[in-house]
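The instructor's notes for this session suggest beginning with a concrete chain rather than abstract definitions. Hand out the sequence below and ask the class to guess, before any prediction is shown, which regions might be ordered.
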Amino acid sequence: MNQIHDLRQALALENARLAPRPGIEGRVVARVLSRPRTSKADRQPWVRGLPAQALRLAAGAVILAVLVSMVVLGRLVRDSGSQGNPGGLTTAEQAEVAQLEARPLALPPLPADGSCPVGPYTEIRPWLPGSTAALYRSPMLVFGNGPIYGYHGRTIVTAKATYHDVDIYSDPSLRGPALIRAQTLDGPFKVVYTGRFAAGAVVGTDVIEGKLVQLHSEMVLPANQPPSDGPTAPGWGFWKVRHGVGTGAASCYGFQVDTLAGTEIFVVLA
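After discussion, reveal the predicted structure:
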């Protein structure tokens, strides 16, 4: 019994010697909490020291760049499709346009006296009988002798060129697409086109009324798909188009309209 009692006393003394001193747990916890916490930024040297506001701005700039790239790419895809097929031409119409493009320009030369041989003119009645347009705008004196006619609208001037908004009318005799090309008679300037029906090669760009646009070498009007821009009479087409010529060009323009039925030429003094 005495041996057991002595063993118990020895164990108690040893436990007392190994027990932590009072308050040591609190000191350990306090020491740990007093150390600075390590963030992900501290573990990445390339962002260490950058303010949080700068990091947020950089992230926002990256997101904005991605969005802008997506918009630009979408527009390029859309525009590239419209350039190859202006106005939604059928496969047969595209083949017909290729035949028309093979015809050379046959515009008249500028007379020796420098006068612009304007014309020819024609009176047309393209509006639906009984409509307000027919009441107030018929007959109309327009350029051309058919099946395509032109009527000048407003003028827009940019740093690069002068543009004209033009009303184009097609009479009921038009069959297939109409190809329009033009240039100045008194200078080396080619007329360019922009908008839905612009076609041919891309020859440049310009900013028109705050919008960046592509400039094309020709215009194609699909006779089977005239837009509904007015109360036209049966068989008539009405197209709102835009063409322009470079700054410094003279003002005498020759237009050549090629259709399956033949070639039409008229001259405009702008």
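Then share the key points. Confidence is low (pLDDT under 50) at residues 40-47, 66-83. Residues 52-84 form the longest helix (33 residues).
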